[in-house]
Amino acid sequence: LKQNDIQTAIAYVTHETGTLLNGYSRSASNQDEKIATLKVQKDKNGFDTVTGKELLSTIGIEAGLIETPSEDIILEASYTNPDSLAQRVFEKHKATGEIYYRASRGSEPDLTGGIDRITSLLSA
Description:
- By secondary structure, the chain is α+β, with helices and mostly antiparallel strands.
- The protein has helices at about 5-15, 80-90, 100-105, 110-124; strands at about 20-25, 30, 35, 40, 50, 55-60, 75-80.
- The chain is globular, with a radius of gyration of 14 Å.
C-alpha cells in the first residue's frame, strides 16, 4: 500500500495493465479558474519531464506523488523505449525512483487500456 488510495490505485493499475501511470494534484499545475496545465519538456540531459508550478516528475525515471487525494487529479500514461531509457540513465548517472524498474524493462505501449482501467477504478 502507498501513502493514499490514489497512489495505491495507480500502482495497482500499473501492475495490472503494464501501463506506466502517474498522477498529479491539480494544485501542483499551472491553473486558472477552469483549466489546469502541465508542461512536458526535455531537461538538459534529454529526459522528458513534467512541470507545473515546479518540476513534478521525470517520465519513466521518477514519479510524482499525490499528497492531497481529496482534490482533482491529472493522470498521465506514458511509454518510453526501455533500451534507450536505460542507456541514457547509465550514461548520465541519473538517480532513479520506483517507476524506473518497470520502465527500463519494458511497459505497455498501448496506453488506452491503462487509462481506461484507472479512470474506471477511480470513478467507481
